[in-house]
Amino acid sequence: LYxxxxxxxxxxxxxxxxxxxxxxxxxxxxxPGQEELIDALLAGRDAVGILPTGAGKSLCYQVPALLLxxxxxxxxxxxSLMRDQVAALVQxxxxxxxxxxxxxxxxxxxxxxxxxxxxxxxIYVAPERLLTPEFLDFAKSAPIxxxxxxxxxxxxxxxxxxxxxxxxxxxxxxxxxxxxxxAAFTATATPRVREDILSLLELRDPWVTVTSFDRPNLYFExxxxxxxxxxxxxxxxxxxxxxxxxxxxxxxxxxxxxDALREQGYAATRYHGGLEDxxxxxxxxxxxxDRATVMVAxxxxxxxxxxxxxxxxxHYTMPKDLESYYQEAGRxxxxxxxxxxxxxxxxxxxxxxxxxFTHSDEGQYIEEEALEQLNQQNEARxxxxxxxxxxxxxxxxxxxxxxxxxxxxxxxxxQNCVGHFSQVDVTKEGRGLVSCVxxxxxxxxxxxxxxxxxxxxxxxxxxxxxDKLPCYGSLKGVKExxxxxVARALVLQGYLEQTQGEYPLLKLGPQAESLLNGQAxxxxxxxxxxxxxxxxxxxxxxxxxxxxxxxxxxxxxxxSREQNVPMYIIFSNATLEAMAAYQPLTPAELLDVxxxxxxxxxxxxxxxxxxxxxxxEED
Length: 619
Ligand code: ADP
Ligand code: MG
What we know:
This protein is α/β, with parallel strands linked by helices. Helix 3 packs parallel to helix 4 (57-67). It is built from 27 helices and 17 strands. The longest helix has 23 residues, at 368-390. The structure holds adenosine-5'-diphosphate and magnesium ion (MG). Magnesium ion (MG) is lined by residues 57-58, 150, 304.
């Protein structure tokens, strides 16, 4: 009996994971996937978490780190990411530090000294550091309880951000006197990358969690404007004061767009691989601290950026695949507030991406046969991305399906679900195109087929004598973009087939004959207007009093300036909105607001409580 009581008492003295979550992070409950990953790690089992951007992967290792005896090492690929994560941890009252090349020799020695003395519970480290003699020496003598590998897809050369130094992680683990529990996290893992993570990191019978990639608060829309810059300006004009990212396909485009936005008076800044490190860092901070509201960037920007109040992401260029698109677009709305993702598409984007494939150094690490396979994979992923830009069915469903998830066919929060469509009969256009494909002996792609059908006088058409074909000009006067849409519908409905490859050709499909002989009818879903659909917030947050919300934002801005801490690290917009809704008057009530934990209560609680009290009294 005595023994039982004793162990019970002892158990109660150790905080639970839920208490840690509340006390340090201020959240009342776990999000999907977090709890089971934490449980696995606490039980000493390796674990892999594949959760979308913004799902909360950091907590999956930070919570166990605070419960496990010993130190947790977090392997992380980016300096900016480490700095942010550690800043956020320290704000929450967790003893954390990072070790990377941004530290001076003296700072590094001091941090290592502290680490040896057991000052830190969580240490972020760059993969390149792991096998350096100094760090190894420390790690061998320290009680390392867990190694968490963040952005674990970097270990795979099939992923988008291969980092050879990630391959040294198993060697590092092997040198430790006792193997710590190993956790790996990523937001993008196609099956192949998933396999690589498990095998290359030498995980042992890991627990694997893959949660839904759905981000219900994100609204998706694709536009095909004639003038992208004009379209971008229209979109931004409706979103002044809001923080957002504009992704461009090239550095040159970043420069041009950023200049154009500044001319229009936007607080825009830029980020791409061609800038000096210093400027990149400065621009990134300007954006993080909301001194610049719009970040114009190439895809070099954003990995690990946890700016929770990004309320829109606009792609000025179609990215190379849906993995990239969803990860980049997913940087919007991380605080759970409604946010919008727009993609401005043009045919030239396709050519640009193909150019980038063939001129990338992605291939340098792999052998020739593998390279061929990589090219095919790139092309297949590109085709899926193009399909997204053209589909008239639910955009969310399209994305989730791509990642292997079942989803409802109507989400009520994308352009195609809220837009107005009608079913249009395009039998005549369809028959015309199929007939052209036949006369052209299935040897050309959609561009030429459409040109011939519309009676184009392009050099290629005339040189080949296609203007003598009976089908030439049979669809004169029909818009080119319409015919491209019809061609796509014909492929989807089996009247035509499209080959894969760099120059996809149109061929007759199994249904072609029934259309040519007049039996079949073709219908196509057409958007009635390109107007922006009326906005429907996806998720009902407790909408606070807007006036109070503004005043709380002002308090946050003041604290941010005074203490030189980014605003979203103090409190997210969602947290401020909840404050404006619940209007807490005591510290205990404030603690009930999601996003308020003990540490932040202590640091900032009073300032916000005071403002709320003043406001209620004025009322
Ligand atoms: P990612 O999965 O992209 O690494 P992060 O770990 O950066 O995501 O978390 C994204 C945001 O979600 C952060 O602001 C974090 O504080 C918040 N978050 C994480 N877990 C929870 C939770 N259980 N409840 C509420 N917010 C959470
Ligand atoms: Mg993360």
